[in-house]
Write the C-alpha coordinates for this entry.
Amino acid sequence: MENNIKNKVIVITGASSGMGEAAAKHLAELGATVVLGARRAEKIEQLAKQINETGGKALAVKADVIHLEQVKNLVDTAVKQFGKVDVILNNAGIMPLSPMDRINVEEWNSMIDVNIKGVLNGIAAVLPYMKEQKFGQIINTASVAGHKVFNGSAVYSATKYAVRALTEGLRMEVKPYNIRTTIVCPGAVKTELLEHISEADIQQANKDYVGEVGISPDSFARVVAFAISQPEDVDINEVIFRPTAQEM
Protein backbone atom coordinates (compact mmCIF):
# COMPACT_ATOMS: atom_id res chain seq x y z
CA MET A 1 0.00 0.00 0.00
CA GLU A 2 2.92 2.33 0.59
CA ASN A 3 3.49 2.88 -3.14
CA ASN A 4 0.54 5.22 -3.63
CA ILE A 5 0.53 6.72 -0.13
CA LYS A 6 4.16 7.66 0.36
CA ASN A 7 4.79 11.42 -0.04
CA LYS A 8 1.10 12.26 -0.33
CA VAL A 9 -0.14 15.26 1.66
CA ILE A 10 -3.24 14.19 3.58
CA VAL A 11 -5.45 16.57 5.55
CA ILE A 12 -7.44 14.92 8.35
CA THR A 13 -10.24 16.54 10.34
CA GLY A 14 -11.29 15.12 13.69
CA ALA A 15 -7.69 14.01 14.15
CA SER A 16 -7.47 14.47 17.91
CA SER A 17 -8.75 11.02 18.89
CA GLY A 18 -10.35 7.79 17.76
CA MET A 19 -10.49 6.98 14.07
CA GLY A 20 -8.87 10.25 12.96
CA GLU A 21 -5.90 9.76 15.27
CA ALA A 22 -5.50 6.15 14.17
CA ALA A 23 -5.63 7.13 10.50
CA ALA A 24 -3.02 9.86 11.05
CA LYS A 25 -0.58 7.46 12.69
CA HIS A 26 -1.08 4.71 10.13
CA LEU A 27 -0.81 6.95 7.08
CA ALA A 28 2.29 8.64 8.49
CA GLU A 29 3.86 5.22 9.02
CA LEU A 30 3.16 4.51 5.34
CA GLY A 31 5.06 7.63 4.32
CA ALA A 32 2.36 10.28 3.99
CA THR A 33 2.64 13.82 5.28
CA VAL A 34 -0.38 14.32 7.55
CA VAL A 35 -1.92 17.70 8.36
CA LEU A 36 -4.04 17.33 11.47
CA GLY A 37 -7.12 19.42 12.19
CA ALA A 38 -9.28 19.41 15.33
CA ARG A 39 -10.75 21.75 17.92
CA ARG A 40 -8.46 20.45 20.67
CA ALA A 41 -5.16 22.03 19.66
CA GLU A 42 -3.16 20.43 22.47
CA LYS A 43 -4.24 16.93 21.38
CA ILE A 44 -3.23 17.32 17.74
CA GLU A 45 -0.02 19.14 18.65
CA GLN A 46 0.91 16.22 20.88
CA LEU A 47 0.02 13.76 18.11
CA ALA A 48 2.04 15.68 15.52
CA LYS A 49 5.02 15.76 17.89
CA GLN A 50 4.75 12.00 18.41
CA ILE A 51 4.59 11.33 14.65
CA ASN A 52 7.52 13.64 13.92
CA GLU A 53 9.65 12.16 16.68
CA THR A 54 9.12 8.64 15.31
CA GLY A 55 10.28 9.56 11.82
CA GLY A 56 7.00 10.65 10.27
CA LYS A 57 5.93 14.04 9.02
CA ALA A 58 2.99 15.85 10.60
CA LEU A 59 1.65 19.35 11.15
CA ALA A 60 -1.13 20.38 13.55
CA VAL A 61 -3.56 23.19 12.74
CA LYS A 62 -6.43 24.01 15.08
CA ALA A 63 -9.72 23.87 13.16
CA ASP A 64 -13.38 23.55 14.11
CA VAL A 65 -15.14 22.13 11.05
CA ILE A 66 -18.32 24.11 11.65
CA HIS A 67 -16.41 27.26 10.68
CA LEU A 68 -15.54 27.41 6.98
CA GLU A 69 -12.74 29.94 7.47
CA GLN A 70 -10.99 27.60 9.92
CA VAL A 71 -11.22 24.63 7.54
CA LYS A 72 -9.96 26.83 4.70
CA ASN A 73 -7.02 27.85 6.89
CA LEU A 74 -6.30 24.17 7.58
CA VAL A 75 -6.18 23.34 3.87
CA ASP A 76 -4.42 26.59 2.87
CA THR A 77 -1.73 25.91 5.47
CA ALA A 78 -1.19 22.40 4.08
CA VAL A 79 -0.72 23.79 0.57
CA LYS A 80 1.55 26.63 1.74
CA GLN A 81 3.74 24.26 3.74
CA PHE A 82 3.86 21.30 1.36
CA GLY A 83 2.86 22.65 -2.05
CA LYS A 84 -0.23 20.53 -2.64
CA VAL A 85 -3.02 18.54 -1.03
CA ASP A 86 -3.52 15.01 -2.30
CA VAL A 87 -6.25 13.81 0.06
CA ILE A 88 -8.70 15.22 2.56
CA LEU A 89 -10.26 12.89 5.09
CA ASN A 90 -13.41 14.61 6.34
CA ASN A 91 -13.62 12.58 9.50
CA ALA A 92 -14.86 14.96 12.21
CA GLY A 93 -18.22 13.87 13.57
CA ILE A 94 -20.40 13.64 16.67
CA MET A 95 -22.97 11.04 17.71
CA PRO A 96 -25.26 12.18 20.56
CA LEU A 97 -27.89 9.49 19.98
CA SER A 98 -31.34 9.92 21.49
CA PRO A 99 -34.97 9.08 20.71
CA MET A 100 -36.66 11.96 18.93
CA ASP A 101 -39.39 12.28 21.54
CA ARG A 102 -36.80 13.58 23.99
CA ILE A 103 -36.59 16.68 21.79
CA ASN A 104 -32.85 17.29 22.06
CA VAL A 105 -32.98 20.04 19.46
CA GLU A 106 -29.56 21.49 20.30
CA GLU A 107 -28.00 18.07 19.75
CA TRP A 108 -29.85 17.69 16.46
CA ASN A 109 -28.48 21.03 15.29
CA SER A 110 -24.97 20.17 16.45
CA MET A 111 -25.02 16.94 14.43
CA ILE A 112 -26.20 18.83 11.35
CA ASP A 113 -23.47 21.44 11.84
CA VAL A 114 -20.60 19.00 12.37
CA ASN A 115 -21.63 15.91 10.41
CA ILE A 116 -23.07 17.63 7.33
CA LYS A 117 -21.87 21.22 7.23
CA GLY A 118 -18.43 20.16 8.44
CA VAL A 119 -18.08 17.80 5.48
CA LEU A 120 -19.30 20.50 3.10
CA ASN A 121 -16.76 22.94 4.54
CA GLY A 122 -14.00 20.41 3.93
CA ILE A 123 -15.12 19.96 0.34
CA ALA A 124 -15.37 23.73 -0.19
CA ALA A 125 -11.88 24.27 1.19
CA VAL A 126 -10.12 21.60 -0.86
CA LEU A 127 -12.01 21.50 -4.15
CA PRO A 128 -10.50 24.64 -5.74
CA TYR A 129 -6.99 23.26 -5.23
CA MET A 130 -7.87 19.82 -6.54
CA LYS A 131 -9.64 21.24 -9.60
CA GLU A 132 -6.58 23.33 -10.44
CA GLN A 133 -4.05 20.57 -9.91
CA LYS A 134 -6.29 17.99 -11.65
CA PHE A 135 -5.86 15.31 -9.01
CA GLY A 136 -6.91 14.49 -5.49
CA GLN A 137 -9.13 12.35 -3.32
CA ILE A 138 -11.96 13.37 -1.00
CA ILE A 139 -12.78 10.79 1.67
CA ASN A 140 -15.87 11.34 3.80
CA THR A 141 -16.64 9.35 6.93
CA ALA A 142 -20.26 8.18 7.03
CA SER A 143 -21.46 5.15 9.02
CA VAL A 144 -23.37 1.90 8.91
CA ALA A 145 -26.02 4.21 10.42
CA GLY A 146 -26.05 5.89 7.02
CA HIS A 147 -27.50 2.66 5.65
CA LYS A 148 -29.65 1.52 8.58
CA VAL A 149 -31.68 3.35 11.22
CA PHE A 150 -31.79 1.97 14.75
CA ASN A 151 -33.36 3.06 18.02
CA GLY A 152 -32.14 6.56 18.90
CA SER A 153 -30.26 7.09 15.63
CA ALA A 154 -32.86 8.95 13.54
CA VAL A 155 -31.07 12.31 13.34
CA TYR A 156 -27.57 10.84 13.40
CA SER A 157 -28.55 8.44 10.62
CA ALA A 158 -30.07 11.32 8.66
CA THR A 159 -26.74 13.16 8.76
CA LYS A 160 -24.84 10.09 7.60
CA TYR A 161 -27.34 9.38 4.80
CA ALA A 162 -26.71 13.00 3.78
CA VAL A 163 -22.94 12.44 3.70
CA ARG A 164 -23.46 9.50 1.36
CA ALA A 165 -25.75 11.54 -0.92
CA LEU A 166 -23.35 14.49 -1.01
CA THR A 167 -20.38 12.27 -1.78
CA GLU A 168 -22.16 10.42 -4.57
CA GLY A 169 -23.24 13.72 -6.13
CA LEU A 170 -19.70 15.02 -5.81
CA ARG A 171 -18.34 11.85 -7.43
CA MET A 172 -20.38 12.47 -10.57
CA GLU A 173 -19.41 16.14 -10.78
CA VAL A 174 -15.63 15.92 -10.36
CA LYS A 175 -14.85 13.42 -13.12
CA PRO A 176 -13.46 16.19 -15.43
CA TYR A 177 -10.85 16.99 -12.76
CA ASN A 178 -9.57 13.45 -12.14
CA ILE A 179 -10.67 13.61 -8.49
CA ARG A 180 -11.50 10.45 -6.58
CA THR A 181 -14.22 10.26 -3.92
CA THR A 182 -14.69 7.70 -1.17
CA ILE A 183 -17.33 7.10 1.50
CA VAL A 184 -16.20 5.06 4.51
CA CYS A 185 -19.00 3.55 6.61
CA PRO A 186 -17.77 2.02 9.87
CA GLY A 187 -19.84 -0.22 12.08
CA ALA A 188 -19.20 -0.54 15.82
CA VAL A 189 -15.76 0.96 16.47
CA LYS A 190 -14.49 1.69 19.97
CA THR A 191 -14.06 5.47 20.17
CA GLU A 192 -14.92 8.28 22.55
CA LEU A 193 -18.00 9.20 20.49
CA LEU A 194 -20.07 7.23 22.99
CA GLU A 195 -18.96 9.55 25.79
CA HIS A 196 -20.93 12.41 24.23
CA ILE A 197 -24.33 10.70 24.38
CA SER A 198 -26.24 12.75 26.94
CA GLU A 199 -29.10 10.29 27.53
CA ALA A 200 -27.83 7.89 30.21
CA ASP A 201 -29.88 4.87 29.15
CA ILE A 202 -28.97 5.23 25.47
CA GLN A 203 -25.32 5.76 26.34
CA GLN A 204 -25.18 2.67 28.53
CA ALA A 205 -26.93 0.48 25.95
CA ASN A 206 -24.48 1.56 23.25
CA LYS A 207 -21.46 1.22 25.53
CA ASP A 208 -22.55 -2.31 26.41
CA TYR A 209 -23.01 -3.22 22.75
CA VAL A 210 -19.82 -1.64 21.42
CA GLY A 211 -17.90 -2.96 24.40
CA GLU A 212 -18.99 -6.46 23.45
CA VAL A 213 -18.57 -6.44 19.64
CA GLY A 214 -16.65 -3.24 18.82
CA ILE A 215 -13.31 -3.20 17.04
CA SER A 216 -10.27 -0.92 17.19
CA PRO A 217 -10.02 2.43 15.35
CA ASP A 218 -7.05 0.85 13.58
CA SER A 219 -9.60 -0.99 11.43
CA PHE A 220 -10.76 2.37 10.05
CA ALA A 221 -7.17 3.44 9.42
CA ARG A 222 -6.52 0.33 7.34
CA VAL A 223 -9.66 0.86 5.25
CA VAL A 224 -8.70 4.48 4.56
CA ALA A 225 -5.19 3.39 3.56
CA PHE A 226 -6.67 0.76 1.24
CA ALA A 227 -8.78 3.38 -0.55
CA ILE A 228 -5.88 5.79 -0.94
CA SER A 229 -3.39 3.11 -1.98
CA GLN A 230 -5.21 2.12 -5.16
CA PRO A 231 -3.77 3.24 -8.53
CA GLU A 232 -4.99 6.67 -9.57
CA ASP A 233 -7.31 5.20 -12.19
CA VAL A 234 -9.13 3.18 -9.51
CA ASP A 235 -11.79 4.98 -7.49
CA ILE A 236 -13.00 3.14 -4.37
CA ASN A 237 -16.36 4.85 -3.97
CA GLU A 238 -17.73 3.28 -0.80
CA VAL A 239 -16.57 0.84 1.85
CA ILE A 240 -18.82 -0.59 4.57
CA PHE A 241 -17.06 -2.50 7.31
CA ARG A 242 -18.25 -3.96 10.59
CA PRO A 243 -16.97 -6.16 13.38
CA THR A 244 -17.40 -9.78 12.36
CA ALA A 245 -19.69 -10.16 15.40
CA GLN A 246 -21.98 -7.25 14.51
CA GLU A 247 -25.37 -8.37 13.26
CA MET A 248 -26.89 -4.92 12.65
Remarks:
- Helices lie at 18-29, 41-53, 68-82, 105-133, 154-173, 200-213, 218-229.
- The longest helix spans residues 105-133.
- The radius of gyration is 17 Å.
